[in-house]
Amino acid sequence: MYRKAFPKCEVTGSLEPVEFNHGGSTKHIPRKCYECSNLFEGECTRAMEQVQGYLSLDYGACRESGDCKPVLVEDDFIRSKVYVPAKCVRCRFLEYHANFGFRCHEDAKLWGCYGKALDWGHWSPELPNIGLESGHQISMDLLQSVQEKNEVEAIKIFRNLNRGTNIKDARDAYQELSLKLERHSQ
To answer: What's the pLDDT score for residue 34?
Structure first.
């Protein structure tokens, strides 16, 4: 889920909840987001070209303390394919939504039925959060393999993440990610 949070929002302002209507449903979002030009349909466009998608709004920090390094959620019923902050794994406020993935329901009465984005604290990914124009999934392992210039491993990871893709799709993704990593490391 860190892929929906980075790069972090740099906009300052009030986190006071403001009513927001979209698609027939009403929820609350932070005032700073409501007043921001990056708000689009309840999500943020702050780094569209980089991540190739929308990012979560910035709801500020939660009141739960703990480690924010990414870990997979795993319990008797779920083995996730996405990472959440370590402090959230056993938190009673962590809930899964089919459209939004894992969300925090601390103060659910305030923010509404979809909760708020997870709090990553001071942690940030070592590699830039980049996406593919094709919209195919990528992971930390894939980015690491691309950075290490291990094309064979990157192709394996890409094809496991994106079932039904072929070698050409994987090689194209490798090339695109290589260029983007190079651009962001300068």
So the answer is: 97
